[in-house]
Amino acid sequence: MQNRTFLEYFILYFKGILMGTANKVPGVSGGMVALVTGFYEELIYSFQKINAKAFGLWRKRGFKAFAQYTNLKFLAAVNLGSASAYFTISLLLDYFIRNFPLMVWSTFFGMIIGSIIYVRKDVQNWSLKTITFCLLGAIIGLAISFMDPMTQNEALWFVFLCGIISVSGMALPGFSGSFILILIGNYTLLLVDAVNNLLKAIVSLVTFNWSFFEVPHHMHLLYVVAIFTLGATIGLIIFSNIIGYLLKKFHDSVIATLIGFIIGSLGAAWPWRIEKSHIREDGVKVIESYERFLPDLSQEENWLSIGFIILGIFIILIFDHYDRKRKGIRTLI
Q: Which residues are CB-neighbours of 50 under 8 A, at least 6 positions away?
C-alpha cells in the first residue's frame, strides 16, 4: 500500500470519474482508462486482497488492519469517483453523444488507437508467443464487437449475472462492460432505468418524499440495482484474483492479450455507423443494433471526424509523454 497525500487521492478520485464515465459508454473500457492512467495493476491487486484473510484480520486486529491490507483508501477513492461519474460527467457525455455522435465516437476511436500505442511498452519482450496472444485477444474482441444484441431480461438471477459480466470492462481493458450489457439486452434496464431510479430515490430520501417508495416499479428497480451491484462486486473480486494471478505468472502474455482486446474494441467504437434503436413511451432510447459502414471522404464532416480521431490519439500520447518524462525515457512527442 502506498502512502499518498490528499491531492494524490483527489487525483485518483478524478481518474475514477474518468473510468466510470468510460464504463458507461458502449465500446469504451474503464479498464483501458485505468491502464493508461497508471493504476490498473494496483486496482487488480487491491481487489485481489478482499478475501478471507482480509476479514480474518478485521476480526482479530480491527478495521484499520483490514483497511491497510486491502488498500482500502485507494479503492474508496477510485470507486467513489467511478460511482460519481454516473450522476455527473457521464450525463454531460450523454448529451454530446446524442447531439454530436460522429465527433464523440471519432475521439474515442482515436483514444483507443492511442491506448494501443501507449500500452505496448508494458510488454517487456515481444515474441512470437506474445504476438500470438495479442492476435487471439483481438480476434475475440472483434467477434464480440459484431455480435447481435439479445432482448431485455429483468429476472434477478440474470441481473446478478449481468453484474458479474459487466465488470469485465474494469478487469479486462478492451472489454466494454456497457457494450456487453447491450449485447445481453440489459443496458437500458441497468445503466439507464435503474441508475435514474436510484438518483430519484436519493432525492426522495433527502426531500422526505416517501410516496416514491410506495410504487412497486420503483422498488423493483432498487432491488435490481442492489442485485446488480452485488454481482458486480463479486465479479470484480473473482476477475481480479484471476487476472492478478496471471499477471504475476505470465505478465507479458496477459498484457499482450489485453492489448489484443483493446484492438478488438475498435469494432465496437467504429465512428461511422447507423444505430438501430427505438424510443419508448417514456422517451428513453433502447439500442437494438449497429450497422457499420466506410466513410465517404468526399464529405467534409468525415474529414472533420478524422481530425477528431487524431485528437483522440494525441490525448493519449500526452499521457505517454509525461509518463516517460517522469521516468526519464525518450518520448514520442
A: 70, 237
275-291 per-position pLDDT tens digit: 777 777 766 666 777 78
| This model's pTM is above 0.90 | no
Which grid cell is 31?
479498464
Taking residues 238-249, report their average pLDDT: 87
Q: Which burial class, exposed, middle or buried, applies to 234 when counting CB atoms under 10 A from its CB (0-12, 13-18, 19+)?
A: middle
Sequence-ordered list of residues with C-beta below 8 angstroms from that of 165, at least 6 positions apart, any chain: 177, 180, 181, 184, 235
- Contact criterion met (CB below 8 Å) for 254 and 244: no
Q: Are the C-beta atoms of 114 and 314 separated by less than 8 Å?
A: yes
Amino acid found at 39: F
pLDDT digits (tens, 9 = 90+) for 104-151: 889 889 988 988 887 888 888 899 999 999 999 999 888 888 887 777
DSSP secondary structure letters along 159-187 = HHHHHHHHTHHHHSTT--HHHHHHHTT-H
Q: Are 190 and 181 contacting, i.e. CB atoms less than 8 angstroms apart?
A: yes
